[in-house]
């Protein structure tokens, strides 16, 4: 279809990328981006872009990706054992993962949008209804007024934990996942370098620690950063920071908001990126999702006969991918929220637990890319380093599980093992040995494994998890990560 005039609301990565791709596809189309902020001021520090995203961006627009890669910084991942000891550290190499400053990413996308002929208007907050255009792309972010005021069936749920997005004025050598324990509780950082002299330093904690540390009482002006929290965190993470400062950028404690929408378009308006959906930051996918939305929307506009079918096609293509990532992100968020309970795990096992937390990285694949880490984890699991062939790891783990024990069957079918439904199971079980049974479907099995971990940690129960044999990779990862003591394979279909 041909569109004459398109207005893009929001000059974040999603809006700018959609504008550029549209203009490249149809140079005759007038495209204007309306951004309320200035060209060079934005929230946050760096964002991460993984290999798969880079491949998609390369196919859609190699020119802008070249500049993104040149400005980004590659990094590996480092995990310290849950006791925080510097002697217990493992590293995972990741050749393609880069971090890039959000300001730099936006500057590159602005430049490329203008080069393609997009008009950029900064400094005025606009509403989708007032924009003079045949089609409005509402890429106005997680707090999208377009979504909130429109018939999109938007829903926002808020995470239990709290996070704060800070930065450093030096580049960490690797991405770092490190817990620290203060007199108030456990705080965890996810930090990674994104330029030669900067790193993102995100910290998260649970509500109890946050209250005990007095953070709930801190009141900060809207444009200011929470300096009291930053100074506290500098002291808490002094070792990881090498005694250096943390910097803020409108930095304060937040609870993550997960956005879902029943529909992504109405009339001439279509939602894109965070406006339509968010996925917890611990899977580093918000920017990816917004830019991949842009690719799919512009493809659909190019090939569909009219606006309504283009919007329907965009949603048909993107919704399954988005929902899959949102489910991974939901599991990942629960894993991070419960992170302080894993203080007993050594670094290598913790890394396996981290990689398998959302069910996205099968144990044999991880053993193929990081054999040293998996062998170290297997050594703590079974007292020996495990097979050299990654494909043999799963059977090796299953063959070394603990001997059978008498266990009381407990049927569970719940969504959040760390929430009230999980509390009820804990109260009922009270430390007895159990066999967790339930639906054969994979999501339910992953949840049983997570509940098994909670039971083991909080009640000291011995836990056997029953599941279809087809899910043996998940079960082996569960055993190595301490989510259960034994598995019972059934012949049911997963
Ligand atoms: C702590 C944290 C860490 C993150 N880490 C990562 C990461 O590692 N990797 C990753 O990919 N993503 C990460 N993200 C997510 C990422 O920042 C967002 O998902 C991404 O920016 C979404 O892009 P967007 O274009 O949809 O929205 P945004 O980037 O939010 O852009 C929306 C734009 O719209 C503008 N706007 C809003 N309303 C109006 C209006 N009425 N008029 C004019 N302009 C308006 C805003 O000023 C803003 O510039 C993280 C997010 C958080 C909170």
TrEMBL record:
Limits of the FAD-binding domain: 103-326
Stretch forming the signal peptide: none
Keyword Amino-acid biosynthesis appears in the UniProt entry: no
Lineage: superkingdom: Bacteria
Gene3D superfamilies: 3.30.9.20, FAD/NAD(P)-binding domain (3.50.50.60)
Molecular function in Gene Ontology: FAD binding; oxidoreductase activity
UniProt KW keywords: NAD, Oxidoreductase
Protein name (Swiss-Prot/TrEMBL): 2-polyprenyl-6-methoxyphenol hydroxylase
